[in-house]
Design brief:
The complex is a heterodimer of chains A (109) and B (750).
Chain A: E1 2-6, E2 9-13, E3 16-18, H1 23-33, E4 40-44, E5 48-51, H2 53-69, E6 72-76, H3 80-88, E7 96-98, H4 101-108
Parallel strand pairs in A: 2-4, 3-5, 4-6, 6-7
Antiparallel strand pairs in A: 1-2
Chain B: H1 4-24, H2 29-44, H3 52-72, H4 75-80, H5 82-107, H6 112-123, H7 127-137, H8 143-170, H9 176-212, H10 215-235, H11 240-252, H12 257-281, H13 285-290, H14 292-314, H15 320-329, H16 335-346, H17 352-374, H18 376-383, H19 388-395, E1 403-406, H20 410-421, E2 426-430, H21 433-441, E3 446-448, H22 454-459, E4 467-470, H23 475-488, E5 494-498, E6 512-517, H24 518-541, H25 554-580, H26 585-612, H27 617-652, H28 657-679, H29 683-693, H30 701-708, H31 716-749
Parallel strand pairs in B: 1-2, 1-4, 2-3, 4-5, 5-6
Helix pairs in contact in B: 1-2, 2-12, 3-11, 3-12, 5-6, 5-8, 5-14, 6-8, 6-16, 7-8, 8-15, 8-16, 9-10, 9-11, 10-11, 14-15, 14-17, 15-18, 16-17, 24-26, 25-26, 25-27, 25-28, 26-27, 27-28, 27-31, 28-29, 28-31, 29-31, 30-31
Classes of the chains: A alpha/beta (109), B mainly alpha (750).
């Protein structure tokens, strides 16, 4: 997973699939970069094809930690299938989603 | 002519008697027919020459034989045997003709033209005898069979230029170029007509005929094809047999090949019988007696020289043993040689007595042929020691140890797939055009023909088959096919599907290894499945917390109800996993049934607590929440059961498959979060959960719009399914939300 720091914003870019097999690694990297949850984090899905319920649980934990810490979390570059699963799981009601990394960063300002 | 009826009775009676005796000593029926002809000819003083009706009937025996040979020779098959046909065949005819013509011209002082024609005639072998025996003994696909078949095919084609040559040598009124031009033009026109009919019409005609399902019309169409093609060839100056051969080749590329062959065999064999009888009729015992020394000398000399020449030619690519076997198989003089000699006689090209002697030699060599071919192994053994490996190699190309599967309906297809999965070599036999096409599309080895046709079954080497499976839908077909197989060999094991137990006794006379009653078998499978499902239900519905409870301590019992009720969420989660892992519907149903059993028990305890226990207001409030939860969970299970069916249906459609998979993942995430909340309540989790389950942002409206729009192009039933399933998902999310809220209320009261 690619990790980029742009000013005070952490941009994470997981790859391929976020499922039962890969979500522990994704969770590990996110929580290594999340601190107390008071920062700003963008998760870029441009290289992700598929997210399973295990992957969604990691996003939920992340969202919970960021909400508790007062930080900001945004997802971007979601393909249609991932948009669909986020809508079906109700995640669109709790996590902000954007078209691009820049669009996401703009909302943090 | 004598009264025909007594002659026919005598001929048929004698042929039957002789063939029954000959079959007992493993001799081919050809011998019986030839002897019948010789005896009847002498007894009734009948001669085939000059009797046009008999000549035509006999000739049509060869036409039908050539037609059935043509059936084996699709253009692609001919290409695959080009070495045997065009190299060995050309060499055999060329070398033998040169040698025999030289001997005739130089040693016997026969004029050159007649010597060439006689040389060519002697080079020909008997297609009728050799192929019949090779087919009967199953050796047609061995190396000896391929060599012999290739050379015989070339010889049959060579008959045309040989007959043309006789015309050229004897027709003094026309120039050679004129004759060649006329013949070439005729050949182009005749072939053009036959190929055009074959490629453009024949397939459609046979398709229409097969659709009538009438054997009578089928036979009529075969006869029309063979006789029509022969007539066209004859009309343009070629032999009837060539027309038959081309007609056969035209059908060889269609799916009706095997069926046509099976239906034709009775005709072919009967007419060939007449042909062989006519060969026997030509044996003039007076000439044989008067010229015994030349007949024996010439006969022995020709057979030995021909054997030696073919043996030497085949040594180029075959082993010594195979080359000698092939040479012995082809050493006789053939029926077309008789036609050639008849023309030599008619055109007075040679001394008539010498031609008569040659004809008698040819016939005697034909009589000897079955003896020689049947004993070819022992004869070869005299010269070469037997090598088992070589024989085994020879047999390797033949089908054996296979399964014959009759019928390719829904049951047959399943059987075939399972045989494939187990790596069992099998051949499908079906008389249904649609099933045949399906089998071909599924890359099966399939033959089009009647399962009860003995010839077709023999061609599929039923005696060497491991087993025969009758997967036929019509029980009458099962009976007929069982009877045919028993007639071939009562020891052949049959496995058959029967409609019910009542039919079992009707098959008692046949050798059935296994009779599968489809009703009983299906019922057993269903009950097995239900039993598995019941065991699973029992396992998951076993109580963990409410194994013992007392209404005297309602607080503790309420706590146990809470814990047990949480297990209902676990059961729902397992049914989600069933959907994700694409388990069968009975497996998923087991979880829904478990849920019902468990929730009924929990509901009973709640009811007992409410009606009989003495509850504090807090306890009453708590049990009230649990009761509401119980209702929500039951609705959740019911909704999920309906949604499960819908998601499976959505998964079958390429356009909605992804939605089905994403729905399972999305709903499972909500459910897992709910289970966290139910197991260990956390307000932060609950806040997130509230956001997930609220329909404030319009629920699944975006998904509906996207799938119901023009881009996805769903049909009416697809749209209806999509609306119903997304409504159920919205409903489930709402129920999830209400249950989550109940856990918040429970935690607040704790």
């Amino acid at each position: 997973m690619l990790v980029e720091n742009r000013d005070d914003i952490v941009i994470l870019a997981p790859r391929h699939r976020v499922d039962t097999n890969t979500s522990p690694e994704v969770e590990k990297v996110i929580f290594e970069n999340i601190g107390d949850g008071d920062g700003k984090m963008v998760i870029d899905f441009s290289q992700v094809d598929y997210v399973s319920s295990a992957g969604l649980r990691v996003l939920l934990k992340t969202a919970k930690k960021m909400k508790k810490g007062g930080g900001k979390l945004g997802l971007c570059n979601l393909n249609d299938q991932i948009k669909e699963v986020l809508e079906l799981s109700g995640f669109l009601g709790i996590i902000d989603c954007h078209e691009s990394v820049d669009a996401c960063i703009e909302t943090f300002a | 002519m004598h009264n025909l009826i007594p002659i026919l009775i005598a001929a048929v009676g004698l042929a039957t008697l002789l063939n029954v005796v000959l079959k007992k000593i493993n001799m081919p029926t050809v011998i019986g027919y030839i002897f019948t002809g010789a005896i009847i000819g002498t007894a009734f003083d009948i001669h085939v020459h000059g009797n046009e009706t008999l000549e035509h009937i006999a000739e049509f025996g060869v036409v039908f034989l050539m037609f059935s040979i043509g059936l084996e020779f699709s253009v692609s098959h001919l290409k695959s045997m080009k070495k045997e046909v065009f190299l060995f065949g050309l060499l055999e005819v060329g070398v033998c003709a040169v040698v025999f013509a030289s001997v005739a011209h130089l040693a016997f002082d026969v004029n050159l033209k007649a010597a060439i024609v006689v040389g060519l005639g002697l080079a020909l072998s008997s297609t009728a005898i050799v192929l019949k025996i090779l087919n009967e003994t199953g050796k047609i696909k061995s190396e000896v069979g391929r060599n012999s078949l290739g050379i015989l095919i070339f010889q049959d084609i060579a008959v045309i230029p040989i007959l043309l040559l006789i015309t050229i040598f004897t027709d003094t009124g026309r120039s050679l170029s004129d004759l060649l031009l006329t013949t070439s033009m005729n050949a182009v026109i005749a072939l053009g007509i036959l190929i055009a009919i074959g490629k453009l019409l024949l397939g459609h005609i046979f398709k229409a005929v097969a659709a009538t399902n009438s054997k009578e019309i089928y036979m009529g169409s075969i006869l029309l094809t063979v006789v029509g093609a022969s007539y066209i060839a004859h009309h343009f100056g070629f032999s009837y047999s060539l027309g038959g051969f081309i007609a056969g080749m035209m059908i060889a590329d269609t799916i009706y090949k095997y069926q046509v062959e099976a239906d034709l065999i009775p005709f072919r064999d009967l007419l060939l019988g007449v042909f062989f009888v006519s060969v026997g009729l030509q044996i003039d015992f007076k000439i044989v007696a008067a010229n015994i020394a030349p007949v024996v000398g010439l006969g022995a000399g020709i057979i030995l020289v021909k054997t030696l020449l073919i043996f030497c030619l085949l040594l180029v690519s075959s082993s010594k043993k195979v080359a000698l076997k092939s040479a012995i198989t082809l050493c006789q003089i053939g029926e077309f040689s008789l036609v050639v000699f008849s023309l030599v006689l008619a055109n007075q090209m040679m001394d008539p007595t010498v031609v008569q002697i040659l004809m008698v030699v040819a016939i005697i060599s034909m009589v000897m042929a079955p003896f020689l071919i049947n004993n070819v192994d022992s004869l070869t053994g005299i010269f070469f020691k037997s090598k088992i490996e070589e024989d085994a190699l020879d047999q390797s190309s033949m089908l054996g140890g296979h399964v014959i599967l009759c019928g390719f309906g829904s049951f047959g297809r399943v059987v075939s797939d399972q045989l494939d999965a187990s790596g069992i070599n099998h051949v499908v036999l079906t008389n249904n055009t649609e099933a045949f096409v399906k089998a071909k599309e599924s890359q099966k080895t399939v033959v089009f023909g009647e399962p009860d046709d003995r010839d077709t079954l023999e061609r599929l080497k039923i005696r060497e088959a491991m087993s025969v499976i009758l997967a036929l839908d019509d029980f009458e077909d099962v009976k007929k096919t069982s009877a045919s197989i028993t007639l071939i060999d009562p020891k052949i094991k049959i496995i058959a599907k029967i409609p019910s137990e009542e039919e079992r006794h009707e098959l008692e006379d046949f050798n059935h290894e296994l009779l599968v009653d489809s009703n009983q078998h299906t019922a057993t499978l269903l009950v097995d499945q239900i039993n598995r499902s019941r065991l699973l239900t029992k396992e998951t519905a076993t109580l963990q917390y409410l194994t013992d409870y007392t209404l005297d301590n309602p607080g503790e019992t309420i706590h146990k109800v809470e814990r047990e009720q949480t297990r209902l969420l676990d059961v729902i989660s397992r049914s989600f996993n069933g959907l994700r892992e694409e388990k069968d519907i009975m497996h998923i149903k087991a979880f829904h049934d478990s849920f019902k059993v468990l929730s009924e028990i929990i509901g009973g305890v709640i009811s007992d607590l409410m009606s009989e226990a003495s509850l504090s207001p807090e306890e009453y409030e708590r049990i009230n929440i649990l009761l509401d939860n119980q209702h929500q969970l039951i609705s959740m299970n019911d909704t999920l059961e309906q949604l499960g069916h819908e998601l499976q249906a959505l998964k079958k459609n390429e356009k909605t498959r992804s939605l089905s998979e994403m729905a399972v993942e999305g709903l499972d995430t909500i459910l897992l979060t709910l289970m966290d909340i139910a197991g260990d309540y956390d307000e932060d989790d609950m806040l997130m959960y509230e956001g997930m389950t609220s329909n404030e942002k319009g629920g699944l409206s975006r998904i509906r719009e996207s799938y119901l729009g023009a881009e996805k192009d769903l049909d009416a039933s697809g749209k209806s399914l999509l609306l119903s399933s997304t409504n159920h998902i919205d409903r489930l999310r709402s129920l999830f939300g209400q249950v989550g809220n109940n856990y918040r209320r429970l935690s607040e009261g704790a």
